[in-house]
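Reminder to self: tokens first, then the designed residues, so the page reads top to bottom the way the pipeline ran.
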């Protein structure tokens, strides 16, 4: 089977990835959820003209000159409007957030007055509208302020509350089941025996999926038998997972059973092997509504493929308005050699010059088993197929890795 280009592989994974169904959740449960539809304000903000400062509500005509004297006839606090109309030569003591009383059209801040009993002297002239927040100056009823596809942050929740929404319509979180395979894997904290290695892939993959808003299901590590691998696939299907991620067993060795198990369970394979480094033996298929991504076992290959393919799929199923990683332009921090037919994703450090220019320097060793180099990298530096050798200072494209 020919190697599939990266762009074609991503298109195949994202095909028919319509957003999941919507559900209503309380505001406190909506953080980092994705809005299922546009949300409009249910009220004007503020609902009435209100004072922006502590001072006195007056008629601007009565306070148009310094030295004017006005009689204080009452007080307005936030939530306690003044019931009378302000007449000629009168003023009302008002505090920030207080409703501007009828007849008043300006606020004189208290620093610009001198009080003497129930009389104030104006020390700086007022003007119409001064220190007044007009009704609806923030937003008006019916105005769409939150767009469908938005991943809700802290400030979005504050806005939704101000719009008078106690609940919000969001997309259901995608469920991602992760199944590792390999007799050689032991859990962290164990003492590996001869030929064994400590299992690490699942921890980064689950964290990556959760950071994108997915719920995760840990299916553990399956032994290198057809029965154990098939059992893991069935558990993923029975759990109601939207996505099954397998790690390991995706290449062509005699003990790599994932591909055979997936086919035996009825998974329709879209591709197996893609033209990229690291991650050539990645595969993808469908079992009804269950989307399957088979990742390589090497930790770097597993993570890079998940970043490039799993993350956009989670975003698509979540209904995000932007699903693809943003490419940035940088300058090479050192020389790089010519590339072959596979698209290369070099782990790189990022530095920023004073003028904002990014410098991307590939780490020295790019082996797909080197977890320490992956942890030290801040970006993937993209080398297209058959890219010629390039000198330090040449332009390149990078994808920032999560913080």
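Designed residues (403 positions):
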């Amino acid at each position: 089977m020919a190697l599939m280009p990266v762009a074609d592989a991503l298109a195949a994974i994202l095909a028919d990835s319509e957003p999941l169904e919507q559900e209503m959740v309380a505001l406190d449960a909506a953080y980092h959820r994705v809005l299922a539809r546009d949300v409009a304000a249910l009220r004007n903000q503020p609902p009435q003209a209100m004072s922006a400062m502590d001072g006195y509500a007056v008629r601007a005509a009565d306070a148009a000159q310094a030295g004017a004297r006005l009689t204080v006839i009452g007080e307005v606090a936030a939530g306690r409007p003044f019931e009378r109309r302000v007449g000629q030569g009168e003023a009302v003591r008002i505090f920030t957030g207080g409703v501007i009383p009828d007849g008043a059209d300006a606020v004189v801040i208290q620093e610009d007055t001198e009080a003497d009993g129930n009389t104030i002297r104006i020390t700086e002239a007022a003007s119409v509208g001064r220190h007044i927040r007009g009704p609806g100056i923030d937003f008006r009823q019916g105005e769409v302020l939150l767009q469908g596809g938005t991943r809700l942050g802290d400030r979005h929740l504050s806005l939704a509350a101000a719009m008078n929404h106690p609940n919000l319509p969001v997309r259901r979180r995608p469920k991602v089941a992760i199944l590792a395979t390999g007799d050689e894997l032991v859990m962290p904290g164990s003492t590996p025996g001869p030929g064994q290695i400590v299992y690490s892939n699942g921890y980064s993959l689950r964290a990556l999926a959760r950071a994108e808003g997915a719920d995760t299901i840990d299916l553990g590590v399956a032994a290198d038998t057809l029965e154990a691998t098939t059992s893991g696939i069935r558990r993923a299907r029975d759990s109601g997972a939207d996505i099954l991620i397998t790690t390991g067993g995706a290449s062509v060795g005699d003990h790599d059973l994932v591909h055979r198990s997936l086919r035996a369970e009825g998974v329709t394979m879209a591709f197996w092997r893609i033209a990229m480094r690291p991650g050539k033996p990645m595969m993808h298929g469908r079992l009804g509504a269950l989307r399957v991504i088979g990742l390589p076992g090497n930790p770097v290959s597993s993570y890079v493929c998940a970043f490039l393919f799993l993350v956009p799929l989670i975003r698509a199923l979540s209904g995000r308005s932007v699903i693809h990683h943003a490419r940035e332009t940088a300058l090479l921090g050192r020389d790089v050699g010519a590339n072959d037919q596979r698209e290369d994703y070099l782990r790189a450090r990022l530095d920023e010059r004073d003028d904002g220019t990014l410098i991307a320097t590939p780490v020295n060793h790019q082996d797909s088993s080197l977890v320490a180099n992956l942890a030290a990298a801040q970006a993937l530096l993209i080398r297209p197929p058959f890219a010629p050798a390039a000198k330090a200072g040449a332009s390149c494209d990078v994808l920032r890795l999560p913080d």
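The chain has a mean pLDDT of 95.
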